[in-house]
């Protein structure tokens, strides 16, 4: 049992993240489209490995998740091709809002209609994520702080996983843990490239950045909807690491006086502060 959990929750998504980082390296249109496609698809593979193949058409929300992730990856890639010459802040923001709102309603309209607390929590989470998408898409990451976005999403996945397990839903704890391993595998490859001299190793642009943020947000959305007693405050805090990225990027914080290998680690620790607060609140709420 433990071996299977480690395989499906850690090893498989970690390897997928490594592969995506390798095939999607560089800032070319091809690399951006591959990343936009493969990150949600990898999330779908992780979901199926954890929960098994869902029936078709899916009925329960957890059965809809892998199909949703697969559709999301394909749509982001197609839009990336069709809108290649028109990608700007407003296009990314519009796609981001629609891609957040429609799945939330499809996955949990019954829960949202009957549970005011979950509806309010999810509304706050999605508004925060939408603002983050608009902020991130409006400004290209500087070389000094580009590692903060993927590090922030790693922190979000970890914070949401722990909020889920303390909130009584092991399935979404595993799924968010798998997303953390996926992002961690990607980060590992890019970190090695960065310390070898590639200043743009962590850059996420356009639909690739949207794909990363959206995939993490779907994990949080499912946790809000399905965890019996997850702390609403902890779940909101779990999506705030990207806000820290936006601040670091705006202020052009890069710790350039520190050793090169330390810079991404320090930035990652800073982006993790809201997620750490989320974990503390989840522990206190569960204890």
UniProtKB/TrEMBL annotation:
Protein name: Uncharacterized protein
Keywords assigned by UniProt, alphabetized: Membrane, Transmembrane, Transmembrane helix
Domain of life: Bacteria
TM region positions: 6-24, 31-53, 65-83, 90-107, 119-136, 148-171, 177-195, 207-226, 232-250, 262-285
């Amino acid at each position: 049992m433990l071996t299977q959990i480690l395989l499906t929750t850690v090893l498989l998504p970690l390897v997928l993240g490594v592969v995506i980082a390798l095939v999607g390296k560089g800032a070319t249109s091809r690399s951006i489209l591959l990343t936009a496609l493969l990150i949600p698809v990898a999330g779908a593979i992780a979901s199926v490995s954890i929960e098994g193949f869902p029936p078709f058409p899916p009925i329960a929300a957890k059965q809809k998740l892998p199909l949703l992730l697969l559709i999301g990856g394909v749509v982001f890639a197609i839009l990336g091709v069709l809108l290649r010459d028109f990608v700007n802040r407003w296009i990314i923001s519009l796609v981001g809002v629609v891609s957040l709102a429609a799945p939330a309603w499809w996955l949990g309209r019954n829960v949202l209609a009957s549970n005011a607390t979950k509806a309010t929590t999810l509304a706050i989470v999605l508004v925060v994520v939408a603002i983050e998408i608009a902020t991130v898409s409006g400004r290209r990451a500087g070389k000094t702080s580009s590692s903060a976005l993927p590090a922030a999403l790693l922190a979000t996945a970890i914070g949401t996983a722990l909020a889920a397990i303390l909130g009584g839903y092991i399935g979404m704890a595993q799924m968010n843990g798998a997303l953390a391993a996926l992002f961690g595998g990607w980060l590992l490859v890019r970190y090695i490239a960065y310390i070898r001299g590639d200043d743009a190793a962590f850059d996420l642009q356009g639909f690739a950045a949207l794909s990363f943020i959206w995939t993490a947000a779907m994990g949080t959305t499912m946790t809000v909807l399905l965890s019996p007693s997850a702390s609403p405050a902890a779940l909101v805090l779990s999506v705030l690491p990207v806000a820290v990225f936006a601040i670091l990027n705006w202020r052009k914080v890069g710790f350039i006086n520190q050793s090169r290998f330390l810079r991404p680690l320090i930035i990652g620790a800073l982006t993790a502060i809201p997620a750490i607060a989320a974990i503390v609140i989840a522990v206190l709420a569960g204890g």
